[in-house]
Each structure stands twice: as structure tokens, then as C-alpha cells.
């Protein structure tokens, strides 16, 4: 399972990228608002995230109608080859997914401060993939049927919101398991991004359930690596080592 960060905070992405385990970032309008990013600053902010992490970055539209979503998605997709367009799983969202997934865009990286000497852009050019079909992350998924429709419309990723289902008395991990099993039976390509995770137990549970990706807050990622016995064990090893050096 791949680990993604669910944030728009540059420092959190920088810290997680340094661990060597970060495979993607998911943002949404709430994350952008919390990071203090205005609409006019979005492109620069997303390009900075791409530069820091060199991984796929989901960027969510705010339009509610298909025409508006397509226009925003086409714009986002030109910001970097790493941009994945995030669309809500509604009727208008499905229409936009179908249109966007069949369109072609130039990933020009226009306006990026790092456009010269950028490894992402160089790699992309080397692969002679100067035009591409935008990848789509279908968000706000709460049922298997919503996910199947999004995949049929052309989404590459589907994002079930685990913690939000738990919060209303349903079982978010069971949805992930059901969805993973359904995709296996149907031999349906598409990746499950388990989202809205609330704690480390969710992360283990969605991995067992078959999620391809878990996206989480930076605080949850840090919780995954910490254990008091690891800290105490390391301290004991170092004490023994120092003592053995003093005895010589
Ligand atoms: O946009 C996707 C997020 O994973 C939603 O998470 P949230 O419920 O913590 O806002």
C-alpha cells in the first residue's frame, strides 16, 4: 500500500518527503483554505508541492457544473505532469470525468518557478509524453456503486471517506473491503485511495481491506512510526554501547 499525505501544507509535505515513503499528496478546498492559499495563488502553491515531493498531487475543482469542472480540470492539468484532477462523485462530476478523461492537455508547467532544471519536467519530456490525458481522482465516495460509476466514467482513483462513514454509524473500512473485492471480481482497473482516515488503526485496517493507497494527515503518519518500546529499546541499546566504550 502506498502512503499519501492529505494536506496542502508545504512544511508537512517537505518533512514527509524526506522520509522516503511519500508516494502522493491529496488536497481539497478545505486544506487550501487552512494553508491560507487564495485562488490566485493555487497554481504556484501546487507547483511548489510538486517540486518538493515529486509525486502525484490531487487538486480539487470547486465548480459544481460539468462545464465549470472541465474548464478547471483542464487548467489544473497544465500546471504539472503530477497534477491529478479531483472531482466530486455527483452526476455533474461523472459528466466532467467522462469528458476530462478523454481530453488531451499539454503539461506546460506554465508559470512554475522551478521550470528550468526541473527533474519532473525533464523526465516527462524524455518519455515523450508532452501531451497526456488528465488523471482523475473521484472524491466524496460513500458507496461501491458511486466508485463503479466513477471508474466507468474514466476515473483512475476512487476515494472512499472512511472516517466520515464511521462518524455517521456506518463502517468505512467495510466499504473499502467491499470495494476492493468488487474490483478484483470485476477485474476492474483503478486504485482505491482510502481517505478521511482518523488514526493509525484505520491505516492498518484499510491496508488489510485492500486499499492501494492510504491518504492521511501528517499527524497520523508520524503516529505510525512511533512506539514507546522502540524509543525505550533504542535508548537501552545506546546506554549499553556507551557503557561498553567507557569500560575499555
Ligand atoms: O479530501 C479528502 C479527505 O481525506 C477528507 O478528509 P476529512 O474528512 O479529514 O476532511
UniProtKB/TrEMBL annotation:
> Which SUPFAM superfamilies does this UniProt record tie to the protein?
Aldolase (SSF51569)
Cell cycle listed as a keyword: no
**Record's keyword terms, sorted:** Schiff base
Q: Which Pfam families match?
A: TAL_FSA
Q: Quick one: a GO biological-process term for this protein?
A: carbohydrate metabolic process
InterPro entries listed in its UniProt record: Aldolase_TIM, TAL/FSA, TSA/FSA_arc/bac
One example GO MF annotation: aldehyde-lyase activity
Name under which the protein is recorded: Transaldolase
Q: What organism is this sequence from?
A: Thermogemmatispora tikiterensis
Amino acid at each position: 500500500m502506498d502512503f499519501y499525505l492529505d494536506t496542502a501544507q508545504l512544511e508537512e509535505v517537505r518533512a514527509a518527503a524526506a522520509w522516503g515513503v511519500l508516494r502522493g499528496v491529496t488536497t481539497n478546498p478545505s486544506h487550501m483554505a487552512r494553508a491560507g492559499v487564495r485562488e490566485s495563488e493555487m497554481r504556484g502553491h501546487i507547483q511548489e508541492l510538486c517540486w518538493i515531493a515529486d509525486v502525484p498531487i490531487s487538486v480539487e475543482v470547486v465548480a459544481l457544473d460539468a462545464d465549470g469542472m472541465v474548464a478547471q480540470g483542464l487548467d489544473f492539468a497544465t500546471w504539472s505532469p503530477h497534477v491529478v484532477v479531483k472531482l466530486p462523485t455527483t452526476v455533474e462530476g461523472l459528466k466532467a470525468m467522462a469528458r476530462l478523461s478523454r481530453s488531451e492537455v499539454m503539461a506546460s508547467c506554465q508559470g512554475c518557478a522551478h521550470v528550468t532544471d526541473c527533474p519532473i519536467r525533464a523526465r516527462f519530456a524524455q518519455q515523450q509524453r508532452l501531451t497526456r490525458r488528465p488523471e482523475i481522482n473521484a472524491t466524496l465516495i460513500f458507496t461501491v456503486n458511486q466508485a463503479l460509476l466513477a471508474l466507468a466514467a474514466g476515473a483512475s482513483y476512487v476515494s472512499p471517506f472512511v472516517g466520515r462513514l464511521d462518524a455517521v454509524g456506518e463502517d468505512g473500512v467495510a466499504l473499502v473491503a467491499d470495494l476492493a473485492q468488487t474490483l478484483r471480481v470485476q477485474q476492474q482497473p483503478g486504485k482505491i485511495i482510502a481517505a478521511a482516515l482518523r488514526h493509525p488503526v484505520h491505516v492498518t485496517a484499510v491496508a488489510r481491506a485492500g486499499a492501494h493507497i492510504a491518504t492521511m494527515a501528517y499527524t497520523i503518519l508520524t503516529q505510525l512510526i512511533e512506539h514507546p518500546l522502540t524509543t525505550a529499546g533504542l535508548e537501552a541499546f545506546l546506554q549499553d554501547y556507551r557503557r561498553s566504550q567507557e569500560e575499555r
